[in-house]
Amino acid sequence: MLSNKEKFIFTSELALAISNGLQIEEGLKMLAGFDAGVSHCAKKLMDIMQDGTSFVDALKQSNDFDEYMIQMVVIGQSIGNLDVVLKELSVYYERQKKLNYQIQDAITYPFVLILMMFVIVAALIFKVFPIFENILRQMSMSLSLMNTARILSYIGFFILLVILVCGVILYILYKKSSNKAWATKLPFFAKLNYQTEMTKFTYILSLFVSSGYSLIDDVSI
């Protein structure tokens, strides 16, 4: 599966090629000269299409593209506006790329903050408290307040440790996951993802309406 960045390059460049009068095969030849991921995908598509396989079927067989792109290409070809659809897909994948960066930042920032708090609490427990404890012992003062503070610090240390471990697991899962859709279900990003899905839906409707289809036909399709 291509990354959102690679799909952005693929769709934007292929849209440019088609809008300039080139055939899909010619556009793919042009893409074969790009970076490794895009180049490998373009060559794979050309190989698949050599025996007469359609562009859409080649996209499906390549396993490099998501279902949304495949369906949009079907729509683009059916209404004769493939270059326009590919251009809009490039905008969509650019937004998805930025969304992934936002999710990564949203996971990384709290993780770094909790790590700093963890280090501070650990320093208090293992460095600062023993010094104060020795001072109080030398002054023959009660250690009850110090013991209470130590207990609370241990509790805080344990809580931060649990949060830190959960954060590490979440970060590793996000980095290793090929499908990051689950991350869009996090509280803030769920709303953003809903807005993205609505944008996709309204754009598809606008494509059909501008191509002469009625609203009822659009919904049924």
Folded structure, characterized:
Keywords: Cell membrane, Membrane, Transmembrane, Transmembrane helix. It is found in: Cell membrane. The two termini are 27 Å apart. The model has no long low-confidence stretch (mean pLDDT 78). The protein is 81% helix and 0% strand. It folds into three domains: 4-93, Up-down Bundle (Receptor-associated Protein); 96-184; 185-213. It has 221 residues and is mainly α.
At CATH's second level, what is the architecture of the largest domain? Answer: Up-down Bundle
Distance between the termini: 27 Å
Largest sheet: none
- The class by helix and strand makeup works out as mainly alpha
Order of helices and strands: HHHHHHHHH
CATH homologous superfamily grouping of the largest domain: Type II secretion system (T2SS), domain F
Shape assignment: elongated
CATH topology of the largest domain: Receptor-associated Protein
Beta-strand segment tally: 0
Helix content: over 70%
The count of domains is 3
The overall average pLDDT, rounded, is: 78
Return Rg in Å. Answer: 27 Å
What is the number of helical segments per DSSP (H or I, 4+ residues)? 9
Membrane topology: Multi-pass membrane protein
Subcellular location: Cell membrane
Pfam family, one: T2SSF
Domain Type II secretion system protein GspF: 10-130
